[in-house]
Amino acid sequence: MRRLFIVFLILLISNAFAYSLHIGNQTIDFTTTQHTVPSLNVLTSNNELYYGAIYSAPFPPQVLHFKTENNEEYFLGPWCVAGTYLPDDVNQCAPCGIGHFCTGGRHRESCTYGVIACNGTNHTFDPPMPTGTDGMYNRALTMSEVNQYIPTTDISQWELLYGGNPSYGSTCGESPNLPKFSGRDQQIPSGTYLIMHEYRYGTGTSAVTGTQKYVSTAYIVVFDHDVMYRPLHICNYFGNFFDTQHIPYQEFDLVIPRSYYRDNENVTNVTNLSSAAITLGLYLYRLK
Questions:
Q1: What is the tens place of the pLDDT at every residue in 169-212?
Q2: Half-sphere exposure in the Cβ direction for 193 (13 Å, CA)
Q3: pTM of the shown model
Q4: For 78, 164, 170, 199, which has the most beta carbons within 10 A of its beta carbon?
Q5: How many other C-beta atoms are found inside a 10 Å radius of the C-beta of residue 94?
């Protein structure tokens, strides 16, 4: 069993329940259970053995680094209990977050049924499909479904995966399924997605950004498996195209919006969408 073994006589501070190592304003608790391999093993002056969790890259700032004899580098961090996780940018545990589950330590991944199944912030396992929701996946949710199943979020809780106007100098009428457009393809994993578009048209007001003489849409989709994503603007085709049946992309069976110049609606409960800075483009966000 690989381990790092250090004897601390001064820096290890005891309390009524455990031992801790203080680094600046951080406190790293040690436990009597070894949670990571390798681990930092500490022998106290009373011959008591405690374990500190250590992790490999990526490294958050201001951490205690270690190198093994094989030049493998690790850092000391807290062991986060199930329902919480250790983010990449800070050296302290955080709630798992809606739409995700965390089994402990640094583990965090999207629930198969997204925020519909994991609508709290501390899920410890990937729950099964909630009763009565079997027809709600791999398509845009309706407003009543959003209101029933999706907690309110802010746009800052979503990560931008694609944004822009993917214009091609192609012949009008060419199929969006042609292999020549595969350079835009992304394979996206199961999870909760925010899908938007904005297009210059008419005399109305954008439903998403409030911009005059634009139409726009915003929808929430939960994919329960990996799908292929292809954003396209080829003359009379302008949309977020998805192939939910094949990997790699073969042909789309979901396009958002259905009509790039007629659709103008916000079917979400995401706040501050106007700050997403969308303009004349297609956009795909994933719940962070």
A1: 677 888 999 999 999 999 999 999 999 999 999 888 999 989 99
A2: 26
A3: 0.87
A4: 199
A5: 15
Exposure string for 28-60, b = 16+ CB within 10 A, e = fewer: bebbeebbbebbbbbeeeeeeebbbbbbeeebe
The widest CA-to-CA distance across the chain, in whole angstroms, is 79
Q: In what order do the strands lie in the sheet with 265-267?
A: 158-164, 281-287, 191-205, 212-223, 265-267
- Cα angle for residues 196, 197, 203 (degrees, 5° grid): 130
pLDDT at 1: 41
How far apart CA 271 and CA 141 sit, in angstroms, is: 17
Question: 7-62, pLDDT tens digit by residue?
Answer: 443 344 444 446 887 777 778 889 999 999 999 888 888 888 999 999 999 999 88
pLDDT of residue 11: 46
